[in-house]
Design goal:
By secondary structure, this protein is mostly beta strands. The protein is built from three helices and 17 strands. It has two domains: about 180 residues, Glucose Permease (Domain IIA); about 120 residues, no CATH class. Helices cover about 5% and strands about 30% of the residues. The strands form three sheets. It has an eight-stranded antiparallel β-sheet with strand order 13-12-11-10-17-16-15-14, with no helix packed on it. Strands 1-2-9-6-5-4-7 form a seven-stranded antiparallel β-sheet. A two-stranded antiparallel sheet has the order 3-8. A hairpin with an 8-residue loop joins strand 12 and strand 13.
Length: about 325
């Protein structure tokens, strides 16, 4: 959950095979996560989906996480029975990402596991409660559920971990889920968060600089400079956030909108030239945007300006598409 952790996430995603390469025979459907991978007492905060932390998380993140208490090494346990399908070493963090296959259509993963047990090898079978390794400051957990598909307008721009991202809390047994939700300070439904805000014909959601290739890497940090999002805060989803991975002075940034209006879900071609006022780093910014077409917007970000001082685009404006 550190600001540099996105690099490990991308590397892990790149190592995970696509569904077409996986064995889809045998039992299908989700399983119940029987236990928490971390003792409740060790968790200081459990996050929802949708973390925003550009340039790695310009778009809402596809996993939840646990912030852990102190600097102790906390035991990590398998949350459900399954087979180790991927084991990836995160060189920059000296820890591991472990993916588990539970059924032909349901996978989960733990990231930032330290000192994995010698028994944790690709192909090894684990049972719920088995020791997996240790974690110190944080532990991430994500779900890939092929019976679930998130709504992104151009699916080809997203890795399967996002396309088939499950709401992690919902897979835990009811008693475990309640304990974990007690560590999650988000009060709005869904308590487990949300990552897909795309609305066709409206501003809400993820946008790519025109010319960005249609590959899953487009939504990764590799194209952070080409990403901008008009989405919502993961803790207080009634609050609008503009998230920019790069390409502008002042980027990357993840700004709350002054006055919290207009709602991106309601901004359409009919809205015309729209302005958002925000600030970060001691400076004021205006993000001007206009839907030119259903899936094309014009954007310009003005530094040290007020909304009243911005009336039109300049030659510095950029075109973004879905």
């Amino acid at each position: 959950m550190r600001c540099t952790r996105w690099l490990a996430i991308l590397i892990m995603a790149a190592t995970l095979s696509c569904n077409g390469d996986k064995d889809i025979t045998g039992p299908r459907g989700p399983v119940i996560f029987e236990i928490s991978p971390i003792e409740y007492a060790a968790i200081s905060l459990a996050t929802p989906l949708g973390n925003l932390n550009p340039p790695g998380h310009t778009f809402p993140s596809n996993h939840m996480g646990f912030y852990l208490k102190g600097d102790a090494h906390h035991p990590v346990k398998a949350h459900a029975s399954g087979t180790v399908s991927q084991l990836h070493y995160n060189e920059g963090f000296d820890d591991y990402a472990i993916q588990f296959k539970h059924t032909a259509t349901f996978y989960s993963y733990l990231d930032h596991v330290e000192n994995p047990r010698p028994s944790i090898k690709v192909g090894a079978r684990v049972q719920a409660g088995d020791s997996v390794g240790m974690a110190t400051s944080y532990l991430d957990i994500g779900v890939i559920d092929y019976d679930t598909t998130r709504h992104f307008i151009i699916p080809g721009r997203y890795h399967e971990n996002s396309l088939h991202c499950g709401n992690v809390y919902l897979y835990f047994a009811a008693d475990v889920r309640e304990h974990l939700l007690a560590k999650n300070t988000r009060t709005s439904e869904p308590r487990g968060g949300k990552i897909d805000f795309d609305i066709d014909g409206a501003l809400s959601g993820n946008w790519f600089l025109e010319g960005t290739p249609v590959t899953w890497e487009a939504s990764s940090w590799l194209y952070g400079d080409a990403q901008i999002a008009f989405v919502y805060d993961m803790w207080e989803p009634e609050k609008i956030r503009i998230v920019c991975g790069g390409s502008w002075n002042g980027a990357p940034f993840c700004d709350l909108v002054n006055g919290n209006t207009p709602d991106p879900a309601g901004v359409t071609q009919a809205s015309g030239f729209v302005k958002y006022q925000s600030s970060h780093g001691g400076k004021s910014y205006v993000t001007a945007v206009q839907l030119l077409e259903k899936r094309k917007i014009k954007v310009e970000i003005f530094e040290n300006k007020t909304a009243a001082a911005v009336s039109n685009f300049t030659a510095n404006a950029k075109i973004y598409v879905r």
